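Holo model, pyridoxal-5'-phosphate. Inputs:
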Amino acid sequence: MNAPGSIAGALAAGKGLRLMTHVVAGYPDPTESERLVATMAAQGADFIELQIPFSDPMADGPTIMMANQAALDAGVSVQDAFDLMGRLSPAVKVPLLFMTYLNVPWRMGVGRFVERARERGAKGIILPDLPFDEDLPEYVERCHALGVDPIFVVSPDTPTDRLARIGKLGRGFIYATLKIGITGGVAGPSEKGLSFLKALRQLVPLPIAAGFGISGPEAIRQVRGLCDIAVVGSQLIREHQRGGVAAVGAFVRSLKEACA
Amino acid sequence: MSLDESHLKNRHFGAYGGRYVPEMLIPALDELERVYEDARRDPAFWAELKDLQENFTGRPTPLYFAENLTRELGGAKIYLKMEGLLHTGAHKINNCLGQILLTKRMGKKRIVAETGAGQHGLASATVAARFGMACTVFMGEVDVRRQYPNVFAMRSLGAEVVEVKEGTKTLKDAVNAALKFWIENLGSTHYLLGSALGPFPFPLIVRDFQSIIGRETREQILGREGRLPDVMVACVGGGSNSMGFFHALLGEKSIRMVGVEAGGRGDGPGEHAARFTGKPSVGIVQGYKSFFLQDDEGQLLPTHSISAGLDYAGVGPEVAHLQESGRIEFHRASDDETLGAWKRLARSEGIFPAMESSHAVAFALREAPRLGRDKILIVNLSGRGDKDLFITARATDRERWLAFLKSEVEDPR
Ligand SMILES: Cc1ncc(COP(=O)(O)O)c(C=O)c1O
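Output:
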């Protein structure tokens, strides 16, 4: 049923809580970000989002925002991110996804962006600043037609009627934030976030990824059983700043162990 | 959607606008839409607003006939709509009064705002003080330096001013920071957005609260001249003073409406903030679809203007629509021309326009002599120039100004 290497295929092939990690393409530099993706995959990440750097990343806190800015300052282009995806997707065994902000695909042409993402091997696309009902139906249509999963982000305040509609348009999984806020928190999942995950199960027929505020093994153990994928982003950048690729590898391993 | 107008469909003004934001902002935008719709139909809301406008901020503002300038230029009669005479020194307070009343209706106790020139920050801090609310203002590091009088005023009013050190350290980055602060504090905080931009319904709300400028102007010019003007000129940053000035008169097809954007110091990327007269391209950033200064891959470009309030890469969606439809024509004024206009208005009329407004004056100086003496041109003087001390003194009286600053620092008193 599931296309080879697809998100659904990867979810069907195993069991338990999976791990999705995050890398800003080209940060801290192109070679290092390539090494980071390979290391994360080797140490147990089940999915990896590759963020195409953008000048104005609206949903990102200071850590990821800084990484976006640093990559852009170093001259990393959208084209470079596509090249990175093209090199990595055949090399690593896990599904890779593109994450970026709408203006990047908009400028390229949304249809063309989806086509090129597929050509380079991306299995899904996350655009946090595109609500499902905005005036851009072409995006979801192209994603569905080409088999690239459009991943929608929802949060504890999203009304149930919107969740139901998102559940129909989304593919692969739905991305639930554990808090109302931006990326980079270290507080761990709130009660509200955890009960949202429980409710979401009944409301949406898709697998659930949970993120925003998962910064270590303890938070992963808290969401275990309530969702299918735990997402870790900002903390990986902080680990890299502390101890380079080796520290990131060890950290990913510890996250993976907490999933089990 | 009950907030629809003829060119407003599906939260877009023509092809522009919308609400391209993270899903988690949708409930807050829905709430704002609902509360505004309610307020709009409530006479008590407008009565309270009118009282504040008249007795707190000083409306109506005069429509002043610039007799000397008109004589000197020898062309069209020049009138100035004096928004700079309002309490806090610019049109920004019109919007802040309206939105603080909406904040109260939503039961929120705290506001966050972005500011470039500091005029919107100052107006926000002022209404926060007046209504007993907490206020956080984000302002780019570059703008803090050049608009320091407003920074001091905001802090004196009890607001927290946060310097934004990311990106270009100007208005665009202050908007990003304010949006993020809002996302993190949605339950308690209203984002008091300062221009006719951002996700819907902000462009509509800001324009509505500013449209008092055009309604007064119509009445005043009919009273003075017995007819409508031929040309109306406003500077355009995000589009709030221009939309407020134009809106009530958009249907009067005989009136030429002119927007003036920041020509900066050159044509290259990063040297100006001319979204229309530069290389126009459509983007979707900061929650709305409009024209942005961006590169081929969709990254926003740095901008430059001598005026912090026009130093912004985007422009409000309704302005974009009206530009595209041909209703508003666009011109630009350079930094130097703007400084010249500032000085000229001071010497000829005894009026200091804000740097932003000086762009509109610069266009009027160029255009009035080309028009017949029977024509009428009105400039919206969106703000007064007090805040620009650190820009104008440095640019026009450099040695004395720097010597003075030095002596202040060294004074042991
Ligand atoms: C006096 C004045 N005029 C104009 C502007 C430009 O903004 P807008 O285009 O929203 O009127 C500003 C913004 O800070 C301002 O302070």
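The pocket of pyridoxal-5'-phosphate is lined by residues B 90, 92, 116-117, 119-120, 195, 235-242, 309-310, 354, 356-357, 382-383 (CB under 6 Å). Chain B touches chain A through 34 residues (CB under 8 Å).
Archived with the compound record.
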